[in-house]
Amino acid sequence: MWKTILRRVLIMIPQLILLSVLVFMLSKMMPGDPLTGNFSQGQSAAQMAALRQQYGLNDPWYIQYFKWVGNMFHGDLGQSFVYKRSVTGLIGERAVNTFWLALMSTVILYVIAIPAGVIAGRYEGTKRDSAISVGSFILMAVPPFVFYLLGLIFFGFFLQWFPTGGSVSSTYNPGTLG
């Protein structure tokens, strides 16, 4: 078993490296740069050139990539151009809500899946078993975002168990949180 785990981890390493290079290159192929959309209004060409130099956007792509990887391994994911804050901090603030959403979805999954599996196993070859099997295949074919929207409508609008506008009050101005 340990050999299988080790082999899969060793296979995963070059795949992750290749994927990170691919994603980085795709972001570099997009028109403009991170500064174009946010700062170009009201900035002179000299100011834009200074900002590009400050953020290392004038460096070749491979230098930018290795800087990004090096910073990532030190826990620095960079600065958000939208929020003007550390990306690591922004992710950390939202990690608690993400954890609770993942936990609750896992609990709901097991509450539904275990009894359905027991019923399908108990009544193997019957219409109940077929109905559960067909239902399972249909549910696996539905994209996750459809479930998210249905959950939002059911739990948020009908049952009103949680706010539908996010996890903060709607009285906050955008960009002022934290």
UniProtKB/TrEMBL annotation:
Its main location: membrane. One of its GO terms (biological process) is transmembrane transport. It is found in: Cell membrane. It is a multi-pass membrane protein. One of its GO terms (cellular component) is plasma membrane. It comes from Lacticaseibacillus paracasei subsp. paracasei Lpp71. The keyword Cell membrane applies. PANTHER family: DIPEPTIDE TRANSPORT SYSTEM PERMEASE PROTEIN DPPB-RELATED. Residues 95-178 form the ABC transmembrane type-1 domain. The chain crosses the membrane at residues 9-27, 99-120, 132-162. This is Oligopeptide transport system permease protein oppB. Keywords: Cell membrane, Membrane, Transmembrane, Transmembrane helix, Transport. It holds the Pfam family BPD_transp_1_N.
